[in-house]
Design brief:
Elements: H1 11-17, H2 58-71, E1 75-79, H3 82-90, E2 98-102, H4 107-116, E3 123-127, H5 132-138, E4 143-149, H6 161-171, E5 174-178, H7 183-186, E6 196-199, E7 214-218, H8 221-234, H9 240-250, H10 253-273, E8 277-281, H11 291-297, E9 304-309, H12 314-323, E10 328-329, E11 339-341, H13 353-358, E12 366-369, H14 375-388
Parallel strand pairs: 2-3, 2-4, 4-5, 5-6, 10-11
Antiparallel strand pairs: 1-7, 6-7, 8-9, 9-12, 11-12
Helix pairs in contact: 1-2, 2-9, 3-4
């Protein structure tokens, strides 16, 4: 099919068709699962573009092209997990280089930067990136990577992507946006000038809580070459069945993200009006400090929100976390089913308590991944448990 660079296609059309071709052998409309470790060569070094399964795989290539099409990128590079994709980017730095990252971010990213790469001489600071002045004050000559989440995980803060991309370029740093929360359906950071976009495809892109994966999309040829070298050399690659399942997920991504966003918006409004609820963190609420920026750079506000109760005792939060019926207490996010989570002891437990609290991640904070169920049922589930605490 003609790609977006040739014909301007809508995101829904790209989700279904980008990177996809009927199987040349059978005409199958779905990309086959090429379950092979090696490929026949006509002569040494003469092949059809594939030589070894760790390096390339046709099922993976189809997924990479699909994700690149959605993000408006020249290149898509897939990995075995979102953390593996993050790891590959950081491996391109050297001892003494400095990373500036959001202080409200996925705990696994913090752990990787600070605990895995810190001992190898990679320096890092975690700051509130919703303040450009704070970012400017913390830039160093050695800053080589600016790591951005927006909306952030779990407080849903909004970062001005375009402004930070300009700041990174002026300072000689590379900018990366973790776009897991929003997906390219709601937000396309490359359009705002960043160098790379990262996804945990485990989440919304896969969408069915049945596969682990990660991806980086970029139009920078040099970075794409570096990352593909690491795919070949370090080997953190997704298997063909993983790629097939993820590719199946992208075909309904636009429909699911619409429903996730609609449901989350109604639930956020309900929570904000409930007497037992204190602060609600959701960029779609006019009361959210980042609401106006979110309207400028997002097409909708996503399916993730967090909230605090008026009674901020952790014991009360635990009653809510264990009292729901449709919201399942579990790690992860972005599946079709609704999940409820306690960041302090689950997804963000790797961040030291003092740093976590200083960033506003209270011990009683509750994070919700709103699914695609009937929203009235979800609201009634929350109302029942909130009324009882």
């Amino acid at each position: 099919m003609a790609m977006a660079s040739e014909i301007k296609l809508g995101l829904g059309t790209l989700a279904v068709h980008a990177g996809q071709q009927p199987d040349p052998a059978t005409g199958a409309i779905m990309t086959p699962v090429y379950q092979t470790s090696t490929y026949v060569q006509e002569a040494p070094g003469v092949n059809k573009g594939y030589e070894y399964g760790r390096v390339t795989n046709p099922t993976r290539s189809a997924l990479e092209a699909n994700l690149a099409g959605l993000e408006g990128a020249k290149h898509g590079i897939c990995f075995s997990s979102g953390v593996a994709a993050t790891d590959a980017i950081i491996k391109c730095l050297k001892p003494g280089d400095h990373i500036l990252a959001s202080n409200d971010l996925y705990g696994g990213t913090y752990r990787l930067i600070r605990q895995v790469f810190g001992p190898f001489g990679i320096e890092s600071d975690f700051i509130d990136m919703s303040s450009l002045d704070t970012v400017r004050k913390n830039l160093k000559v050695s800053t080589k990577l600016i790591w951005i989440e927006t909306p952030t995980n779990p407080l849903c803060k909004i970062v001005d992507i375009k402004a930070l991309a300009i700041l990174a370029r002026e300072s000689g740093a590379v900018s990366v946006v973790d776009n897991t929360y929003a997906t390219p359906i709601l937000q396309r950071p490359l359009e705002h000038g960043v160098d790379m976009v990262l996804h945990s495809t485990t989440k919304y892109i896969g969408g069915h809580s049945d596969v682990i994966g990660g991806a980086v999309c970029t139009s920078n040829d040099d970075w794409a070459e570096r990352l593909r070298f690491l795919v070949k050399s370090a080997g953190a690659v997704p298997g063909p069945m993983d790629c097939f399942l993820t590719l199946r997920g992208t075909k309904t991504l636009h429909v699911r993200m619409q429903r996730h966003s609609e449901n989350a918006s109604e639930i956020a409004t309900f929570l904000e009006s409930h007497a037992k609820v204190g602060t609600v963190y959701y960029p779609g609420l006019p009361s959210n400090p980042g609401h106006e920026t979110a309207k400028e750079q997002m097409d909708a506000f996503g399916g993730m929100l967090s909230f605090l109760l008026v009674d901020e005792r952790i014991e009360t939060a635990m009653k809510v976390l264990s009292g729901t019926e449709l919201f399942t207490l579990a790690e992860s996010l972005g599946g079709v089913e609704s999940l409820i989570n306690h960041p302090a002891t689950m997804t963000h437990a790797s961040i030291p308590a003092d740093e976590r609290r200083a960033a506003g991640l209270h011990d009683s904070l509750i994070r919700v991944s709103v699914g695609i169920e009937d929203v009235d049922d979800l609201i009634n589930d929350l109302k029942g448990v909130l009324d009882s605490v």
